[in-house]
UniProtKB/TrEMBL annotation, chains A, B:
PROSITE patterns attached to this UniProt entry: CNMP_BINDING_3 (PS50042)
Gene3D superfamilies, per the entry: Jelly Rolls
Domain Cyclic nucleotide-binding: 15-114
Record InterPro entries: cNMP-bd_dom, cNMP-bd_dom_sf, RmlC-like_jellyroll
Full protein name: Crp/Fnr family transcriptional regulator
Amino acid sequence: MHPALKKYLEGKIILSSQQEQLVGNCFKPLVTKRNQILLQKGNTAKYIYFVVKGCLRVFLTTEDGSESTRFLIFEGRMGTAFPSFILQQPSQAAIQTLEASHLLMLSNTDRQRLYQEVPGWETMDRKGIELDYIASIERIESFITMDAKARYDSLMQQHPQMLQRLPAKIIADYLGISKETLSRLKSKR
Amino acid sequence: MHPALKKYLEGKIILSSQQEQLVGNCFKPLVTKRNQILLQKGNTAKYIYFVVKGCLRVFLTTEDGSESTRFLIFEGRMGTAFPSFILQQPSQAAIQTLEASHLLMLSNTDRQRLYQEVPGWETMDRKGIELDYIASIERIESFITMDAKARYDSLMQQHPQMLQRLPAKIIADYLGISKETLSRLKSKR
DNA sequence: GTAATTTATTGACATTTGTCAATCTTTTTA
DNA sequence: TAAAAAGATTGACAAATGTCAATAAATTAC
């Protein structure tokens, strides 16, 4: 098993060496360049990605060519185009790497297999989904209760590394604002 | 077991009569009036609510007294102040009934008990959480990609009953807009 | 290393949305 | 049923944010 995945699982679940091997085999390594498309809009998401190194972006594209970032996934985290992956339906969103990345891919079938063959895996996974869901609830609240400036400040406080690492236009559409507005917010202290 | 709950579980899980009794006992009935507070902001959510009849509102209050609706929960659905319930931390949000309601309450400890004693319960619950999470992702997307009018039209199409049943000001803050703006959107075609 | 491309900033202006206040309507309660 | 409370609408105006265009800066690719 990849040491980064092992670290991720530490404290979340205890695996026998046999189980560890099974889990390790289910996560297939993938090394990508920057700006590589992992999932095209319209295709069905087959994998969840664990990010060992690099960064993924799940984003929407509209008819007129504009893009909106639904999620960003950094080192030590898992993610995918969740609705498509769970419902096994064509994805509204696409997935791309924002940096050269090292990934571990878990297929939907292997995911089911882990549920069945590794006691405790489903509980661990459920708890992970619960936390992701909570994060998304908090993001919804940020849209309901905060203006653009407040959302930016909040992001700056919670994920300062995001701002340094990613182009501002990605941050802007993650926040749901135009890149010009973000640029002005930054200078406006 | 309450017939509404039985109907909810139908097709999701198969229970022995003994298990059915256990589940039925875990969900405690509660009859409320309109505008009754089920959870105060600052308290920790102890229950998930299944709505047999009526409607719940999970909402945020700010210092200046304004309110924002985080979630609305109608008949045949379950919900609570999710972050507080899962993390067992003081809730940012409060819960109130918007109508006289019939509820079934599941405590956190009984929830754990069902996980342990009813095979398949956790799987069913996980799938429910996945769907709720998907719904919240779609709501995030609505904030990133749509303006107020588009969000209103979308809600009107997906949940027309909500608009008829609830005061417009509740709808407005669910959409993240002022009640005046909503009022204008409605007349504007 | 330089050209090409992408990204960021800034200004001018348009549009959307919010706020406040007044009034009208509906619903609730006594 | 009448009074009171809550909710909805509308106008006037302010504030926030978007759009378009020009330019500057940074990054990427050859």
